[in-house]
Amino acid sequence: MSDNEFPVTKFFGTDRRGFLRAATGAMAAAVAVPAFAQSSVKPNEQDDVQLSQIHASTEEPEKIPGPMEAEDQRTGYAIVGLGRLALGQILPAMGKSKYSKPVALVSGDREKAMKIAAQYGIKQSAIYNYSTYDQIAQNPEVKVIYIVLPNSMHAEFVLRGAKAGKHILCEKPMATSVKECERMIAACNAANVKLMIAYRSQYEPYDMAMVKMIREGKFGKLKQFISTNSQNQGDPTQWRLKKSLAGGGCMPDVGVYCLNAARFLSDEEPYEVFATTVQPKDDPRFAEVEASCQVIAKFPSGFTAVFNSAYDAHKSQFLRVEGTEAYAELNPAFAYHGIKMKFTKFDQGMEIAHEPALEEKDQFAAEMDHFSLCVQKDLKPHTPGEEGLQDQRITDAIYESARSGKPVKVSAPSTATRGPNPAEI
Ligand code: NDP
């Protein structure tokens, strides 16, 4: 599921593989365009789109550059886990990326992987399953492994990927515990490979513009952050509602967007959180995880963040940052497309509102290209493992506060959690 732009209720009542087959059919249709072509399919239009089936059953011939053509400088990616995000966003985004290309797939469903490989011109010899995954070490075309698995599988596949000597891009949330995050960072350091967490919002033009405006002092002193990220989960059997696979409910999945935004916008770290969670007893979807989470986070400068997330409310997502001189909103804030900003200040009693129109960029292409450049130029990524680790520390404190009913202190990170700004690379 996207976070969350696909109609999840549509798949209600199927088992996981059944659901995945259904999803794959839909996704394969959505990506049934020539390899690297840009998809014009918008998420909400998927039901109306009739695209032809994939016919190719064999691998596409590799393109050998002619004598006058520059050699392909794009970094090769292995995509691990061919679910909704990989098929609906990440692989199509490769068509919009300048420095990244898919060269391998890792999946538990070979038939699906073969179709997708044919679609994207990936060699069938570069299709792995979860047991043969380690053989990726012998594939020189793979420079980066992109982990797009359920949350509790991230740690294992990052550790094995690092051992295979590959750089790792890992989906959010980084893992399901602080210990796992620390192990992932240590393994990548030991193997001398880079680790980046896929916080796509930090590569999104409006978010980046807001960071710049805040740093330039356009808001005055930052005072408050208010945000929500809610959606209504359908299928009660999905892994997102199983604690062992998801690590938690709405908080690590969608609440983490609000938390991460409060941190990267303010460039501060919260020292204390106070939180509640709601787990309704009469809703079978929430036997194991929370349906909603409400958080107040306090920062050293006096800045506060108040944010909610939910798995049982209508889709809704916004954020607002308030300073002494101005405030601004993103609404929607965390969508794949169509993010809008409104900047407001009062001058001698007159409201002056500005709604900048920035060029939309594919967030996944931007994030992958940033990582590819970091790999190519040997630079620290903007959102390395340390960024994910700090969100996990705070998430743990949020759950502890919800359990105890008391505010919980959060320890500050010992080193910077973010690398150079993507715009500077
Ligand atoms: P899906 O359930 O759609 O896909 C997960 C894939 O993982 C499956 O298709 C399957 O691939 C593989 N898998 C392996 N073992 C299991 C298992 N036990 N149960 C379920 N799947 C399994 O999830 P998403 O694609 O929505 O999410 C994957 C990751 O991406 C999560 O960490 C999520 O938080 C993150 N995400 C990030 C978003 C963003 O905007 N950055 C948006 C959505 C998700 P196969 O069939 O190929 O084996």
Radius of gyration, CA atoms, in whole angstroms: 21 Å
First-last Cα distance = 31 Å
Q: What is the CATH homologous superfamily assignment of the largest domain?
A: Dihydrodipicolinate Reductase, domain 2
- What's the level 1 CATH class of the largest domain? Alpha Beta
For this structure, the quaternary state is single chain
**CATH structural architecture of the largest domain:** 2-Layer Sandwich
Low-pLDDT residue intervals, each spanning 5 or more residues: 4-62
List of distinct ligands in this structure:
NADPH dihydro-nicotinamide-adenine-dinucleotide phosphate
Mean pLDDT: 88
Q: Name the beta content range.
A: 15-25%
Helix proportion of residues, in percent? 25-40%
Count all strands and give the number: 15
CATH topology of the largest domain: Dihydrodipicolinate Reductase, domain 2
The dominant shape is: globular
- Strand/helix succession: HEHEHEEHEHEHEHHEEEEEEEHHE
The computed structural class is alpha/beta
Strand order of the largest sheet: 14-13-12-11-7-10-9-8-15
Summed up, the helix count is: 10
